[in-house]
Amino acid sequence: MGRLLLAVVVGTGAMLAASGAGAQGKPADALQGAFQGAWVADGTSCASVFASTPSGMRFKKPVDAFAPAFIVQGKRIVTPLATCRVRSMALDEKRVSIQLACANSVSYATTSTVFALAGPGMLVRYLAEGDAGPIYRRCDAPGG
């Protein structure tokens, strides 16, 4: 499979599942609540990546394969290049660790990511070393 899919998922899209990060209750419940929607890296314009439709946000066409963005839809996370299914989530203090099964048109891989809430409509993805990484903001949040 490909390191390409893994890099895409970890580098841009995996950030997505962060949705459950610091939410009350079961981690899986978080994906059904406040973390649903479209997310971009802080500093990226929502309008440059997403288009609004009656059924919600979608990636603008042509899709920028390297846009630091994702969409959480139920227990799915959609990135510019892959769609991931949440396999499991574990809450550890205020962080959530998410196991993902991701696929694109040519490959399939499993991977994981760690997220936490960083404020209203914001989340942070943690790097392998445990250091805080990129911050993402929800596009459909106030001011998004």
Automatic annotation (TrEMBL):
Keywords: Signal. The keyword Signal applies. The keyword Signal applies. It comes from the Bacteria. Residues 1-23 form the signal peptide. This is DUF3617 family protein.
